[in-house]
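Morning, I've got a small favour to ask if you have a moment. It would help a lot if you went through both lines with me. I owe you a coffee for this, so here goes:
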Amino acid sequence: MDPTTLLTSFDIAGAWVSIFLTVCILSFLYADNPVYKLAEHLFLGVSLGIGIVEIYYGVFKPNLVDKLLAGNLLSLMPLLLCAFLFTKVLSPKLAWLARIPIAFVVAAYAGVKLTGEANANLMTQVAQTMPDLSTLWQDHGLWDWSADGAGVISGVLLVLGLCACLLHFYFSAPHGKAMRVVSRFGILVLMLSFGASFGYTVMGRISLAIGRAQELLGLDRPAVEAAQVHPQVASLVSIIVVVGVLFAWRLREKPAQG
């Protein structure tokens, strides 16, 4: 075996722990149990730990600690504002001080982000909902199957569907017969878009489930690494351990219920 393909004991132990935690999460399909809670709490704890470390080294250290050590006394102001946030928990009498940094955050977001969000999202969406029909005709014609149906017909349907959706939510005037027809078409477009979004979400969840199943079977690794990890054995051992814990948990609950 090539020495470069040899896994360390930590790599093998990590693979076994990953498989065990996957089985623990899947045990939720049976019931909300202590094994599932163990994996859930580990996930939350590790995520919080990693997030705190990243925030410290990515935000606090370069923007606050390093500047204070360099003698930048103006950095004491954000430190003081940050300390004010903790008064809401530590001292109910001084809780009003926490409103000062919150006001700064809200004002900064409204002043800095508002124009950026409008230019990046609103204007981009408006521009994309008004296709250039001449360009579509030159590139794809009326309908191009090889480009997933791109063409003039798709551009016109996009504009008509958007207008119908907007008119569906127009309540300043009573809807007449023609308006009701347009509103029905808008509802159809909305349902199609919601269904497509839901379908993409389900496909994403299924892809995650496939990835977990591949790890349990050892199909996500090269054959050389899978031979060292023995994922099938790890999956079997994990299932036996989880089933044993669930059995003991149920036996312990029965006398308490009785």
The two ends are 58 Å apart (CA to CA).
